[in-house]
Structures are given as structure tokens and as C-alpha cells.
Write a structure and sequence with these properties.
CATH architecture of the largest domain: 2-Layer Sandwich
CATH superfamily of the largest domain: Bira Bifunctional Protein, Domain 2
Strand order of the largest sheet: 6-10-11-18-17-16-15-14
Structural class: alpha+beta
Number of strands: 18
Number of domains: 2
Length: 497
């Protein structure tokens, strides 16, 4: 029998013995009066006596509950550390205080058990604030031991798969997710304070749209129709602009049937917001203000360190057109970019596979991804994306070959994508039809035209701009997390073997 199985047998034996002693293994009648952090910061903590013998004379008493993370038994007395969601504290349990009956129960407790104590505070000889327990309670018996060296495991997949254990033993992981929650709260606050309304749009859609990605497909029996988990909420949010809402946003999940990587998970969180009578330039200014403010609120500084790279988010941020970036950062000859055949040829020479009908716009964006993207460490807006790769964006009036669009890159990763919205239903329908004709075997382009969206545009979409921000990637940046799995609390993994 291996060590884990031996421990499981021992734990179950202790549980059976406690049950024979009429101890409730899963009690629901202990009500803490304080979180541990409240105990640690209380006035009683400052007044805690340094003499154990004087502790019973202290007036204030506390009831706390938490999980045992460390346990040292010394016959008739024991020290243990417990942790709740606010902190950790030491507890001293003495047989002559809690009584022989309860102490005999206590001896069958293990690391990982969830327990409750009532008692007063004192300080040990080393100055550690400690609860002298005068009453103890088993709340939940743990039947499976915590890994002794969980923090040092090299098998990170186990941490992702058993996130509940990861959260128990690694306080920095809990802090990452607390920070994620705060980031989302602050984003809501920022947009709400500027008059945006938070809305919800369908997760299941009859025609997936708003992005180029392979969707997940399901079937609704009652309606007898195929539905798709949404790849983006964009087309529904713009329907709301048609309906008269002028500023809307949604923070929710998108689903894309793509591979797993440090930057990709099949379901991920996006912030999308749309504003009537605004342009992509307005959203560049808004985004710069929002993310720099968010960074200062979360980190207390405009500088963050991401994977040993110092990133300065102080405004103003660098702005390039895609051609300028290809020339200045990618080192491409300007003459090549001006020649459609030459830019396609350069892409092929660099090993980029293009669809037979792909034009110079597609070649430019692929070259940008290859030669420029990873070099954009500090915040950089890239504008003037080719119309060919921007089917939902408004054409630039001075140069119809490009659109009024930007993408934001930080640490070599796309963080946001935005554009002035295309609201001409005739132009939009032609672009959808062209995309479908040219899709070939590309499963990321849906073969069905969204006729209802075209109908909505025919009623009239006001001039507007919209944007999507990847929440997970933003959290990665602000928590110095190398993988998207570090910021998604339950990431997708292959099935256990």
C-alpha cells in the first residue's frame, strides 16, 4: 500500500472513531463571531498579555473557525495554526482547560480539518499572538491529506486541476484571484461612472458572429435547431444601440473552439463596450485613461513588472499605423508595403501560409504578427488595419483600403480591439458575403449570413465605436502571471488518465 493510501485509511479510521464518540463529523452549528484578520487587528491584540497564566483573566473572547494548516501535539497541550479567508492565527489547546473528553477528540484531528475555537488572546515567548482555547469544535473532518510540499510541486497541472487545494495552501494564488475580482469591479465602476449601462446578451446564438473563430455547437431539442456558444457579444450589443441605448457594456464569457496555450482557453472573459456618436479615436483616449487608472488603483504605480520586464503604463501611449509599425519595428522596406504583389510575396518568403484569395491586407497582418507583435512591450496602439481583415469596422474616409480601427498591445500581447462601427447595411452585407465566398475550408468563418443583424442595421445604427478587452490577459499583466491558466480559477484541461 502506497503512502497516500495509508494516510487515507488512517483518516477514515479516525473518522470512524470520532463517530463512535458521538462527534458530528460535519457539524453545522458553530457560528464564528470574528474573522481571523479582525482578531489580529483588534484592540485586544494590542493588549494581549505575554503571560499564559494571565490569559484567562483577559476580558475579550473570540470565536473563530478555519482549516488546520499546522499541528504540533505535546501530550497534554498542542499548538496549531488555522486559516480562514482573511488570515492565519495560532491556537493553543490545553487538556486541563478544554477537558479530557474534548482533548481526546482533539487528538484525532488532522491537518486539513475545519475546526472552531473560542478563547482569549495571549502572546507566546516569541511574541506570537495566540488564542488560548477554552472551547473547541470539529466542524468538518478532512478525509484526504493536504500535500506536504504542495507549493514546490513541479506538476503545475495538478495545481490547475485541483485548484481547491492550490487555494488552501498557496496564499499568493488566493491573492491573484482577489485581485482579479477587484479589477473587474473597478472596470465596472469606471464605465458606470461614465454613463455606460451593463447589459447581458445571449450566450447561445443561432448564427455566431462578431469575431473570426470556430464556435462550439449544440442542439436545442424543443426548438429543433442548432445553436452556437457565442464567440463574441458584439452583434447583439450593437443591436441595443439600434434600439436606443447609447452606452452599453458587458463583462462575460466567450467560447472559442481553439487550442490551449499560455494565452488561450476555450472559455474566457471579455469586456465589450459600445458608445453611440463616438469614434475609435475617442475609445483610444478612453482606454488609455481606464487602464492607466486601473493600474494605479491596483498596483499603486504606473509601472508594473511582468516576467522581469518593467512596463510603463503612464500616458500618453505610443501610436502607430500598422504600416508604420511594420517599417519602424518590423524593418520592412516601405516600397514593399506599397506593392500588393510584393507584400504577399514577402509573407510567403517568411513562411506564412495564405489562402488562395487572400490579399495584401491579410499578408500585412500576418507579417505584423510575425515581426512586430512580440516587440511591443509598453502600451502601443496599432491603427489603420486593412479593410480586408476588418469586416465589421468602418472604412477610413481618406483611404477606404483601411479601417478606423485600433488594437492595443502590451508585453507583446493583444489586450484590446476596437473600431468605429460599420453602420451601412449594404456595405456590411457585401463584406459578409465576400468573407463567406473566400472562406474556403476555414472553420473560423461561419458560412451563414446573419440576416437579422443586417435587418437591424437597416433600421439605423447610429454612428458609434466599440471595443473588446481581454480580461484574462489584463489580469495576467497586473498580477505578473505567465499563463492564462493562472488567472482562470478553473481552467480547462485534458481528462485525467
Amino acid at each position: 500500500m502506497d503512502q497516500l493510501n495509508q494516510l487515507l485509511v488512517q483518516r477514515r479510521k479516525k473518522a470512524a472513531e470520532l463517530a463512535e464518540m458521538d462527534v458530528e463529523l460535519y457539524a453545522n452549528d458553530f457560528k464564528p463571531t470574528h474573522h481571523i484578520s479582525e482578531v489580529l487587528s483588534s484592540g485586544s491584540a494590542n493588549e494581549a498579555v505575554a503571560n499564559l497564566d494571565d490569559a484567562p483573566n483577559v476580558r475579550a473572547s473570540f470565536k473563530v473557525a478555519g482549516r488546520i494548516l499546522a499541528l504540533r501535539k505535546f501530550g497534554k497541550a498542542s499548538f496549531l495554526h488555522i486559516q480562514d479567508d482573511s488570515g492565519r492565527i495560532q491556537v493553543y489547546v490545553k487538556k486541563e482547560i478544554v477537558g479530557e473528553e474534548f482533548y481526546s477528540q482533539f487528538k484525532k484531528w488532522d491537518i486539513g480539518d475545519i475546526v472552531g475555537f473560542k478563547g482569549k488572546l495571549f502572546k507566546t515567548k516569541t511574541g506570537e499572538l495566540t488564542i488560548l482555547a477554552d472551547a473547541i469544535k470539529l466542524i468538518t473532518k478532512s478525509l484526504r491529506p493536504l500535500p506536504e510540499k504542495f507549493h514546490g510541486l513541479t506538476d503545475v497541472e495538478m495545481r490547475y486541476r485541483q485548484r481547491y487545494v492550490d487555494l488552501i495552501v498557496n496564499p499568493e494564488v488566493r491573492e491573484t484571484f482577489r485581485k482579479r475580482i477587484e479589477i473587474i469591479r473597478l472596470l465596472r465602476e469606471f464605465l458606470s461612472n461614465r454613463g455606460f449601462l451593463e447589459v447581458e446578451t445571449p450566450m447561445m446564438q443561432a448564427v455566431p458572429g462578431g469575431a473570426t473563430a470556430k464556435p462550439f455547437k449544440t442542439h436545442h431539442k424543443a426548438l429543433d435547431m442548432d445553436l452556437y456558444l457565442r464567440i463574441a457579444p458584439e452583434l447583439y450589443l450593437k443591436r441595443l444601440l439600434v434600439g436606443g441605448f447609447e452606452k452599453v457594456f458587458e463583462i462575460n464569457r466567450n467560447f472559442r473552439n481553439e487550442g490551449l496555450s499560455t494565452r488561450h482557453n476555450p472559455e474566457f472573459t471579455m469586456l465589450e463596450f459600445y458608445q453611440a456618436y463616438a469614434t475609435y479615436q475617442d475609445l483610444m483616449d478612453l482606454t488609455e485613461e481606464m487602464i492607466s487608472w486601473l493600474t494605479a488603483e491596483i498596483n499603486g504605480s504606473m509601472e508594473v513588472t511582468y516576467q522581469e520586464q518593467v512596463v510603463d503604463l503612464s500616458p500618453p501611449w505610443k501610436r502607430y499605423t500598422i504600416d508604420e509599425a511594420l517599417i519602424e519595428v518590423g524593418g520592412i522596406d516601405p516600397g514593399v508595403l506599397d506593392d500588393p504583389k510584393a507584400v504577399i510575396q514577402l509573407a510567403k518568403e517568411r513562411g506564412i501560409e495564405l489562402e488562395p484569395l487572400a490579399g495584401p491586407g491579410k499578408a500585412k497582418t500576418e507579417l505584423f504578427e510575425l515581426l512586430v507583435e512580440e516587440k511591443l512591450i509598453n502600451p502601443t496602439f496599432i491603427t489603420a488595419y486593412p479593410t480586408e481583415v476588418s469586416p465589421l469596422a468602418r472604412r477610413n474616409e481618406a483611404d477606404p483600403a483601411v479601417t478606423d480601427r485600433f488594437e492595443l498591445f502590451i508585453t507583446g500581447r493583444e489586450i484590446a480591439n476596437a473600431f468605429s462601427e460599420l453602420n451601412d447595411p449594404v456595405d456590411q452585407k457585401k463584406r459578409f458575403e465576400k468573407q463567406i465566398v473566400e472562406r474556403g475550408d476555414d472553420e473560423e468563418i461561419h458560412p451563414v449570413l446573419d440576416e437579422d443583424y443586417i435587418r437591424a442595421l437597416e433600421y439605423g445604427l447610429p454612428a458609434a465605436a466599440g471595443e473588446g478587452i481581454g480580461i484574462d490577459r489584463l489580469v495576467m499583466l497586473l498580477t505578473d502571471s505567465p499563463s492564462i491558466r493562472d488567472v482562470i480559477i478553473f481552467p480547462h484541461l485534458k481528462a485525467e488518465k
